[in-house]
Amino acid sequence: MSTAVTALTASGRLRIVVALARRGLNEVLRVPGASIPGVLAPTIFLLGISSVFGAAAKLPGFTADDFKTFVVPVGMLQGAAFAGAATGVNLARDIERGWFDRLLLVPAPRLTLLAGLVSSGALRSLLPSVVVFAAGLALGVHFPGVLGTLLAFLLVMGLSTCLACYATTLALHFRTQQAAPLMQMGGFIAVLFTPAYAPADLLAGWMHAIAVVNPVTYVLQGVRQGFVGPVTWSGTWPALAAIAAMLVVLAALAARGMRQTGR
Amino acid sequence: MAAIETERLSRRFKGGLTAVDAIDLSVEAGEVYGFLGPNGAGKTTTVRMLVTLLRPTGGRAMVAGHDVARDPDAVRRRIGVALQEAALDGLMTGRELVELQATLHGIAPSAVRTRGQDLLERVGLVEAQDRRVATYSGGMKRRLDLALALIHEPAVLFLDEPTTGLDPVSRMTLWEEVRRLKDRGTTVFLTTQYLEEADRLADRLGIISQGRIVAEGTPAALKAEIGHPHLELAFAGDAPDLDAAATVMAAFGPPEVLRELEKVRVPLPDGAASIAAVVRALDEKGLGVAALELVEPTLDDVFAAKTGRHLEGA
Fold it and tell me: Which domains does chain B have, with CATH numbers?
């Protein structure tokens, strides 16, 4: 006796994505302590660096009046990086414990499973970025407006998705949580090598050269728009294009990793 | 059509290890097939290939009418799998896990809850369904794992060492469920290193050693293949004449004198039916029997005969 199970419909695939994203959020909702490092680190970094380098905003050529306002978007992106890396670390844990095998036995396209895994990273990124955003507002950071706020969180989630794909690729390759530092390092470096703490024109030559080709620079500038200056289309589309380009490349690598599992 | 069929199925890992070496299997629909072998024999590698988790490097395998390498999704739609370690998310409740599994298998939202409840009831976990899985005992986790494997009513069920580490009661419960599944027509591919489990549950057995199938058949046929039951006798008195007893017993088969044990052994092709005649013949010669035991060949004897090693304690 058996029931013939037919191929999944589009709505069935969407339900899988939602179900996996919900499962990914369990750690945030049921083990709140597990989220503390990812929330505290960018918040403390924001407070610390604002205190130490706050006077940098008075330098000639600095594009913001207030250093805290200038670096709040950096903290939000760091939160996205932590959440993205956590997606990979959790996948590595699932691989080690055998849960991932259960997932691979599902008759769904690998891309659907990947979308479910990384979308939890996008949702998780909201927790640290909201905390950083709120901490910034409490410290007197300029409110970026409704549009600026929505755009900032959209880009944060986009970057987190990209970095979740990156971390997922590493998790599928190394199949161990011991690769966690590598997963975290990617996002940390990607955010660091941007005009994170000073406008591009004030960066050292080599740093400036890296920042110009680093797509995260354009994401940061997109997030920063409402905080420093108005939100414009000319400042928005490069950020969206950068997210799209990173997503295409990193999702392709992660999808390749999914397909190669078991070969 | 066979539910599972392999032709020279092989898996060679990087580094040169051949875990599965050109095995041919055929499992009929509705059959419980026991796959027996010690740790490292190739059981799990074989199962992982059959369930599409590992790509074969040679040969081919058809499961539920579909090629595992060419059409893995079609295979996945028709199989249920409970792997060696019950990999469950301890943060979720039993009910959440069953419903997640139903969603992952594309079961319509309207049917997810009903199907989940039916299965939780079947495996006796209704009362514990809203507890986090981390609080479940080993037996409860295994039963939940089985429920997850059955959520889409698979035609072929793979159970990879399902009772390892379970207490006797949990083991018996799982055996009962396997029998029920067989009665419903589900094909069960069961790997185990427990001989009793294989003997009791399997319609047919395959014995794997070092990546090769060394024996296949029904448990009874395999045991008959390696020999008949034999009778072991101990005699009354402080210094029984074992040679005299052996001479009498030679009428029934070639006797073997076990001097250290002070026993004589003789094969009995007719089994228990010949015991009375043996005892009567000895009695007529004044050789009183103090104790006797009819020893049937075991699957361990089969394994030893086929591989030169014993499976029990392996």
Answer: 2-88+136-224 (3.40.50.300), 228-296 (3.30.70.100)
Has residue A18 been placed in a domain? yes
Residue A73 lies in a domain: yes
> Is B89 close to A23, i.e. CB distance below 8 A?
yes
Q: Does A1 fall in a domain?
A: no
Q: What single DSSP character describes residue A109? A: -
Q: Is the ipTM of this complex over 0.95?
A: no
Q: CB of B148 within 8 Å of any CB in chain A? A: yes
Of the candidates B204, B201, B213, which has an alpha carbon nearest to the alpha carbon of residue B303? B213
- Label residue B227 exposed, middle or buried (CB < 10 Å: 0-12, 13-18, 19+): middle
DSSP conformation letters of B5-29:
EEEEEEEE-TTS-EEEEEEEEEEET
Q: Is B126 exposed, middle or buried (0-12, 13-18, 19+ CB in 10 A)?
A: middle
Touching check for B180 and chain A: CB below 8 Å? Answer: no
Contact B87 A102 (CB under 8 A): yes
Whole-angstrom Cα distance, residue B222 to residue B209?
16
Place of tokens 């050789």: B287
| Closest B-chain CA to A13 | B106
Helix (H, G, I), strand (E, B) or coil at B183: helix
What count of other Cβ atoms lies within 10 Å of the Cβ of residue A160? 32
Instruction: Copy the structure tokens of residue A15.
Output: 């339900």
| pTM of structure | 0.85
How do residues A147-166 score in pLDDT, each as one tens digit?
A: 999 999 999 999 999 999 99
Q: Write out pLDDT tens, residues B186-240.
A: 999 999 888 888 888 999 999 999 999 999 999 888 888 877 788 889 988 888 8
Total domains, chain A: 1
Give the whole-angstrom CA distance, residue B311 versus residue B153: 33
- State the angle between helix axes of A110-124 and A145-174 in degrees (0 to 180), rounded to the nearest 10: 130
In a domain, A120, yes or no: yes
> Among partner residues A6, A31, A262, which is closest to B91 by beta-carbon distance?
A31
